[in-house]
Amino acid sequence: MTTLDPGTKSVPLSITEDEAAVYDRQIRLWGLEAQQRMRNATILVVQLKGVATEAIKNIVLAGIGKLIVVDSDDVAEEDLGAGFFYRDEDIGKKRVDAAKARIESLNPLVTVETSSDSSLLKNDAVDTLIASVDMVCVTDVDRTTLVRLNDACRKMHKPFYSGGTYGLLGYIFCDLLQHDYIAPDRSSQKDVAKNVKNTAVYVSLRTALQHRWTGMTRRQTKELNPAIPLAVLAIWEFQATHAGALPDDPAAAPELEAIANKLIAEADVHKQVLSSIPKELVETLSTTAAHEISPVCAVVGGLLAQDILKALAAREPPIANFFTFDGNLGGGTVVRMSMP
């Protein structure tokens, strides 16, 4: 285990000629200023399962400055499928200890710190840790933990990402506070290339969970595939009543179905689109939600990393603010939950 240094952030670093050569393609794509922001960014990742594995690979290769990973769990046999940082001989070791050298080998220019001390995520210690980083990414944890850590990030004025998978379903939520970014002016003349500054105001997960679908047309509702985001919320509610455990038995289907249908009614979803959760979706979730499926982790983790880098570069609009992926269809949608 590496001892974390939650001290004052260092003086911003300039990209060297050697680094410019390594990141040449990205600099031409995003610009030197954007790459410089990445170079000076410290990102905290909590929990090192399949989604985090894929996200870490991409942000480390892209050239962030420092990665801090906190995970107190041991490598289990089921981690070997989606967790490509792990090997058979790592079973029983701390996840962060098994993965650290392999993360470092991806890009020696990135500083990697790890800890298996779960107390870092509690009480005053979490505020100190969050204050020392530029962005927080929490993966594969329950709703209570997500809300608590998002609230801590808001308190310390730090942008927050979360993501995870439940069998064939996956999600990404982000709270970037007030986020400024540059994007092409879609309203300008076609023959004139012009970028404009935009600002998006995000909300906390606590607020996002109060989202209602009231007033949306049938077409608008159908395009957002509401069964999937509401299924994710139903899984979170199931965990809240089962000490954080995920459904992993066909016998859980009736309870999960009842929870989902209650959420659908409360959210005021257009009844001609979704009056109740599809039974086949509930039956699948009741047996697969507790298990990681490698391709789903790869998709969700890849998109999570892409959005983190987009937010750091301040180029193009990031997710606003709840993305869900349906592995049955191979597609995803973004729901603007309670955002102004």
UniProtKB/TrEMBL annotation:
Subcellular compartments: Nucleus
GO BP terms, alphabetized: protein sumoylation
Pfam family, one: ThiF
Residue ranges occupied by any THIF-type NAD/FAD binding fold domain in the UniProt entry: 23-328
The entry's keywords: Nucleus, Ubl conjugation pathway
GO MF term set: SUMO activating enzyme activity
Broad class of where this protein is predominantly found: nucleus
Pathway(s) annotated for this protein in UniProt: Protein modification; protein sumoylation
Keyword Nucleus among record annotations: yes
UniProt keyword annotation of Nucleus present: yes
GO cellular component: cytoplasm; SUMO activating enzyme complex
Family listed: Belongs to the ubiquitin-activating E1 family.
Protein name, entry field: Ubiquitin-like 1-activating enzyme E1A
